[in-house]
Amino acid sequence: MNKGSVDNQAYKRDKRFISFVLLACSLLVFFTFVVRLYYMQFIEKNTYQKISKTISTRRIPIYAQRGEIYDRNNNNAMVVNSDSFIVEITPGNIPVGYYDTVASKLSMILGIPKSNIDEIIPPEVRRDFTSYTIKKNVTFDTVSNIAENITDLPGVTWQIRPMRNYIETGSFSHILGYVQKIQQNQFYEKYNQGGYNINTIVGQAGIEMQYDSYLQGKDGYEERVVDVKGRILSETPTIVPPQMGKKLVLTIDSRIQTLAEKALGDRVGSIIVLKPDTGEVLAMVSYPYYDSNLFNSENASEEFEKIKRSELKPMLNRAVDAAYPPASTFKVIMETAILQEHAFPEFERIECKGEIEYGGRSFHCWVGKPGHGKLDLKHALGYSCDIYFWQVGRENLGIQKISDYAKMFGYGQYTQIDLPSQQKGFVAVPEWKERKYHTRWMDGDTMNVSIGQGYTTATPLHVANVMAMVCNEGKIYKPHLLKEIRDSVTDEVIQEVHPEILYENSIDHNVWRKVKESCRFVCTDGSAHISLQNPVVKIAAKTGTAQVTGYKDSWHSWLLAYAPYDAPVEDQIVVCTMIEACNDWESWAATHATNVVIQGYFANQTFEEAVDALNFRWAFKSTRRTE
């Protein structure tokens, strides 16, 4: 075989190999396209459909209404919704050359500068068919004016957005809270999931914040097909209706809340009315307060700053978020500890001469000289003798037992009430003082703690819980404001809050009986025997005045009471009144306010009727203050 024949055969073999390779590559490419096409059409079908809809449809939200809030009787609405409007401009629908005319006329109707509209719709977006929000919370009258002039306002539209309407204001504000748009830091820290977005309206305080997830409805939407420029192509929209949030029924009784609000008046402080057998809060008043509706106004940010600058801190819920020395109300805990621990014979008397010398210092009983005379335990609590509790606390009970019993009553721990903010107060022990101040605990410290002064602090709700434990003979039920969650459409109960024991102890029944007798003695013969006389029910109570640094000749005033004294616990209420030292000193204010609340509650009377029934009209003249 010659050389030319060999070369020709080799050439043919190479050609066939190359053809085979090309065919294989072609088949591989074809197979890849087929597989990819199948994957896109069948496996990733839903994904691409969503993308297609995003590109080809415009979704306009239909805002859901928040759930309404009612008082315990489910017939008195405290928070509802009212319609407000959002005015928008779709600049692409404005004929060329008419933007300035439309913007100027709209600015006059809305009462805003045209420059505000220009900032929202700069020149580079004036051919867009995207809708831009110009103003929120627009009134119906303003929208009517726009509708009457709509032929001169092409591109201008409006839509309804529910606005919170707080029917009950005043002292209800600390309970209910308020709503605002999510703050940026809130969104990233708390609300970046669960259906929230940066424009969602959320609760910012009180029940609105605590139960926001129940109150939030689910927004609906209106969906239309649009072209690439955003122009609407479809005549019939797809509408998904919104779902309203859940309805909340609170434990608050609006009548009792109003009664307590008027009884406190314009005194800086708080009043709590509590059902000891369930932990239900019937009233929670803190003064000063604010108007929750202000945060829906056009000047919301200005109002917010004004409230924050107030020296009296109207946004502070003093019932749960401010801690004070509990003063002589602490003696209820002291008597319980003395009896249970057999720390000192209950009938043995200690002489009060008005002052004692100890450690080179003089300690003065509040009554002054010549003192209370010789007192046993019952009379010491009834007359609130400091010297008795100083001596027994220091020499017989000791700081460790005192601290242990304070914690047993819930001091130094959160009350766990269903509010987003609360203080837990403080119970001091020697080790804490040594760590903080690098100095040892002194007997004088124990004496201060023994009468509710010194380092010990508690919120008014802590103090109310002390008497609740006395009423329940060893139990404190978790205080709560929510009674029921209901369906907003059917009003069917979805969830009901049941009593839950927060603290429980095994203190002897006879101890509680004696503590109750001592608290009753306070009202029949002791420190409140004049101001807590009541024609309707028998009251048991403990008074307290806490000396405050910085206020000359003034004290925090406490009155802790329950009634009826001789009734089963399920028929009793606890009332705790606390009035701060910054008020003009009125020694009778806390006791009289408490008596009015008890009178109004059990006699089913208004504030005015209760005041007249007790002949207290002289005590409740206007105390309105100005800053």
Helix count, DSSP H or I runs of 4 or more residues: 21
Oligomer: single chain
CATH top level of the largest domain is Alpha Beta
The whole-number mean of residue pLDDT values reads 89
Largest sheet: 7 strands, mixed
Shape: elongated
* CATH architecture term of the largest domain: 3-Layer(aba) Sandwich
Commentary on this structure:
The protein is 36% helix and 20% strand. The chain is α+β, with helices and mostly antiparallel strands and 627 residues long. The protein folds into two domains: 62-250, Penicillin-binding protein 2a (Domain 2), CATH 3.90.1310; 254-290 and 316-620, DD-peptidase/beta-lactamase superfamily (Beta-lactamase, 3-Layer(aba) Sandwich). Strands 2, 3, 4, 5, 10, 18 and 19 form a seven-stranded mixed sheet that branches. It starts with a helix and ends in a 13-residue tail after the last helix.
Task: Please summarize what this structure is.
With 627 residues, the chain is α+β, with helices and mostly antiparallel strands.
Write the layout of secondary structure elements.
Elements: H1 3-43, H2 45-56, E1 57-62, E2 69-70, E3 77-89, H3 99-110, H4 114-120, E4 132-138, H5 140-148, E5 156-166, H6 173-176, E6 179-181, H7 184-189, E7 201-203, H8 206-210, H9 212-215, E8 220-225, E9 238-240, E10 247-250, H10 254-264, E11 269-274, E12 281-287, H11 300-309, H12 331-341, E13 350-352, E14 355-358, E15 361-364, E16 373-375, H13 377-382, H14 386-397, H15 399-408, H16 430-437, H17 443-450, H18 460-472, E17 475-477, E18 482-486, E19 493-496, E20 501-504, H19 509-524, E21 540-547, E22 555-563, E23 573-579, H20 589-602, H21 607-614
